[in-house]
Automatic annotation (TrEMBL):
Protein localization: Cytoplasm
Molecular functions (GO terms): carboxylic ester hydrolase activity; palmitoyl-(protein) hydrolase activity
GO BP term (any one): fatty acid metabolic process
Name used for this protein in its record: palmitoyl-protein hydrolase
SUPFAM superfamilies the record matches: alpha/beta-Hydrolases
Length: 237
């Protein structure tokens, strides 16, 4: 079945991340897509399960897997990562080349979906932690105006390159969520990111929600907010 569906939707081999991605299909004609990126050391499977819980019948969820690379933060251990991480504070050195390359790979998935009939304004990016960071960076540097970004427990990579590095899409809705007890990416880093985003896109488009008692993970309340956001900006047509 998997092989068949890949053959039917064009040649995925030209989009390396898509060939292996976990896809949660809609129950009816898919008129929208959410590309959701997992965190460091994870895979698309867990998030595909979580997103199935908030599924909308006309929306396809695509959860690609990051390739394993050596991660400096974890003593160069090989693990799934979208780009290398040197540290987790706002002034850490960043893997600029890796971030830009990863963003191009996500843009290739967007272009593939566009070619197969889902227009950019019906495509949303999302992600958790490093995946959320990449989804923000990709959306802000994409030449298309996307439907929105779901940025969970994350930050904006290469933040000093903005707003000048932005492609100028001012009206992209962004839902940023963060656990108040997050010790990996402290909530104040999320708040700084929300402030930075207000200088890049229309401030009215930014929603920053924090969750008391929540650590570096998601919760049912947070996923309910994500579902509302997706329903609002990717309505059935």
């Amino acid at each position: 079945m998997n092989h068949l569906s890949q053959c039917m939707c064009g040649n995925n081999m030209s989009v390396p991340l898509l060939a292996e991605a976990v896809t949660v299909s809609g129950m009816e004609k898919e008129t929208a897509a959410v590309i959701f990126l997992h965190g460091l050391g994870d895979s698309g499977h867990g998030w595909a399960d979580t997103l199935t819980g908030i599924q909308l019948p006309h929306v396809k969820f695509i959860c690609p897997h990051a390739p394993p690379i050596p991660v400096t933060l974890n003593m160069k251990s090989m693990m799934p990562a979208w780009f290398d991480l040197m540290g987790l504070s706002p002034d850490c050195q960043e893997d600029e080349a890796g971030i830009k390359k990863a963003a191009e790979n996500i843009k290739a998935i967007i272009e593939h979906e566009v070619k197969n009939g889902i227009p950019p304004h019906r495509i949303m990016l999302g992600g958790f932690s490093q995946g959320g960071a990449l989804s923000l960076y990709t959306a802000l540097t994409c030449q298309h105006q996307l439907a929105g970004v779901v940025a969970l427990s994350c930050w904006l990579p290469l933040h000093k390159s903005f707003p000048s590095g932005s492609s100028g899409q001012k009206n992209i809705p962004i839902l940023q969520c963060h656990g108040e007890m997050d010790v990996m990416i402290p909530v104040h880093f999320g708040a700084m990111t929300a402030e930075k985003l207000k200088g890049i896109v229309n401030p009215q488009m930014i929603t920053f929600k924090t969750y008391p008692g929540l650590s570096h993970s998601s919760s049912p309340q947070e996923m309910a907010a994500v579902k509302d956001f997706i329903e609002k900006y990717l309505p059935r047509i």
